[in-house]
């Protein structure tokens, strides 16, 4: 890796860190820019949590907006410094909101530790996928996240994919399902989901170079 490549890799991290520091210091414009840069990440994470519990019953974009509003009003509670720490803090807010929406849908006010564990596991799996080596594997060295954090870029690319492509990738890589179970979940043959998966990853690789 050349010095120029290293600068490209470090630049988005430094930019996010500066925005975090400014937001913590009370700069509302910086906070707005910071939250906007995480919006697709939150939509993807919300979609992943919802598809196990509230698929079709809530809009991931609306949930993401709720997270942003909550974060805006509680930024003083965030004590971290890095992009990953901020993502983890937002994920905690998202988990609480998803639990609330599921309880509302089920008509109960009582907290369900088992449900919360399932939601947290779903979000942890999604986060792990965004932080995994797949992001590096589907980009060329010259494309390596010159403009933003790797996991944010991957989330943005995933959200821009056609639904079938995104779903097969999530079922395969986030949920860790074998192709037979992916086929059952999608109502397709094993052969068709394998081909869909290959096309989806190819499209994701192309999209990663555009976002």
Automatic annotation (TrEMBL):
Q: What processes does the entry annotate via GO biological process terms?
A: DNA-templated transcription initiation
InterPro entries the UniProt entry points to: RNA_pol_sigma-70-like, RNA_pol_sigma-70_dom, RNA_pol_sigma-70_Plancto, RNA_pol_sigma70_r2, RNA_pol_sigma70_r4_t2, RNA_pol_sigma_r2, RNA_pol_sigma_r3/r4-like, WH-like_DNA-bd_sf
Assigned protein family:
Belongs to the sigma-70 factor family. ECF subfamily.
Q: Which SUPFAM superfamilies match?
A: Sigma2 domain of RNA polymerase sigma factors (SSF88946), Sigma3 and sigma4 domains of RNA polymerase sigma factors (SSF88659)
Per the database record, which ranges form the RNA polymerase sigma-70 region domain? 51-104
Provide the taxonomic classification.
Answer: Bacteria, Pseudomonadati, Planctomycetota, Planctomycetia, Pirellulales
Q: Which GO terms describe its molecular function?
A: DNA binding; sigma factor activity
Keywords assigned: Sigma factor, Transcription, Transcription regulation
Q: Respond yes or no to whether keyword Oxidoreductase is given for this record.
A: no
The protein here is known as ECF RNA polymerase sigma factor SigW
Positions of the RNA polymerase sigma factor 70 region 4 type domain: 152-204
